[in-house]
Design brief:
Strand order of the largest sheet: 1-2-9-4-7
Bound molecules: 2-acetamido-2-deoxy-beta-D-glucopyranose
CATH superfamily of the largest domain: Jelly Rolls
Structural class: alpha+beta
CATH class of the largest domain: Mainly Beta
Order of helices and strands: HEEEEEEEEEEHHH
Strand content: 25-35%
Oligomer: single chain
CATH architecture of the largest domain: Sandwich
Number of strands: 10
Radius of gyration: 21 Å
Length: 216
């Protein structure tokens, strides 16, 4: 009887049909990025206009310029720059980091991330919803995984540059960069919220906002 009730309960639960982007319904659907109206993903451009060029992308071949405060350059190979990825549920990034550089704490709302270090020495870590950090220093050829939606970071702890390629189970994983989300949004998150959240006074919050070129 208990087994039967459990079966009936399971029958009516809204079970997930996909763990990341939905499955494609045809071989390909090269994105028509300019089409309106917009839909979830992008409409397909006419198959008659599809060429080999739609399935190749060289945007990750060049070293990124890491001359910035974080010492990092992320080149995203997502559907917005590589329309052939549309409906296929995957994408990749190239991340260059100068010595000491960081990918600041961030998360991808629509994707799990895996990555492989190609060059350098990289501390990779993520934080669980229970505030436990899992991390490791990786060298060339070593791989990592970041569970979907969890805050994570990368830090070049070597003497030279670091290079990592990351892969996502989403054509457009999205990035929530924690520092800029909180301190450089438009319009700004109110100082009253931030002073209470971080238990500091307003001068500290304004100091951080000014680092991002924002007014208090
Ligand atoms: C890298 O970026 C910095 C800061 O924007 C700029 O001054 C520099 O010229 C760039 N270097 C190259 C090689 O493009």
């Amino acid at each position: 009887m208990a087994t039967l009730s459990l079966f009936i309960v399971l029958l009516f639960l809204p079970l997930p049909y996909s763990y990341a982007d939905p499955d494609p319904l045809q071989d390909f659907c090269v994105a028509d990025l300019k089409s309106s109206p917009s839909v979830n993903g992008f409409p397909c451009k006419s198959a008659l206009e599809v060429t080999s060029g739609d399935f190749f992308y060289d945007g990750l071949s060049k070293e990124g310029n890491t001359t910035n405060v974080f010492g990092v350059k992320v080149n995203a190979g997502n559907v917005l720059v590589f329309p052939g990825l549309n409906t296929l549920g995957i994408s990749m990034n190239r991340v260059d980091l100068s010595p000491g550089g960081i990918a600041p704490p961030h998360l991808h709302p629509r994707s799990t991330e895996s990555g492989i270090v190609v060059e350098g020495k990289l501390l990779v870590g993520f934080v669980t919803t229970g505030n436990v950090v899992y991390s490791k220093v990786l060298g060339a050829g070593e791989m990592f995984v970041i569970p979907r939606g969890l805050v994570h970071f990368q830090h070049n702890v070597g003497d030279g540059k670091a290079l990592v390629f990351t892969a996502f189970n989403s054509q457009l994983p999205g990035s929530v960069i924690v520092p800029s989300t909180l301190f450089a949004s438009t319009p700004p998150v109110p100082n009253d919220v931030l002073t209470k959240a971080f238990q500091v006074d307003e001068a500290v919050i304004n100091g951080i906002k000014s680092k991002f070129g924002m007014q208090g």
